[in-house]
């Protein structure tokens, strides 16, 4: 997985301002205003998922006072969405600073969908959607008719973190993971590469 004893190699694509801040101040945090600016008119949907993540993730890895939102990093560079003008950071991070989860699981949460515990749970949920005549699952969040279902979906999101303990304990080996960090530290940087394409 790219781990060296109690550390792990991670990749993240970041904007020039993040790199400048990180190199100058030796640490960088994500602020709420950056999320709103990045996602603009759909930021409220992202913030629903992000706020849930913060509430739960701070119980896994303590959130520093100045961190408002997480940085997303990956165990494979391919997943890091390296946009022109951005920089690819390769980091070596202490394992106790990271929160592991699957990329596709986080994408379900971002789309305000149910995150099943397994195949049977998924089948049961899909049958319930058909029975309730719900064709667009995100309607459960965006329309006021489904408070109980909304609560069930949010509860299912706890399945996001099921891999964290298993990976940290060495019980499973997973290669393609997304990793949440509360901060970026200059001392973690192995390399910085600019995307000039």
Automatic annotation (TrEMBL):
Domain of life: Bacteria
Stated name of the protein: DUF3841 domain-containing protein
Species in which this protein is naturally found: Clostridium muellerianum
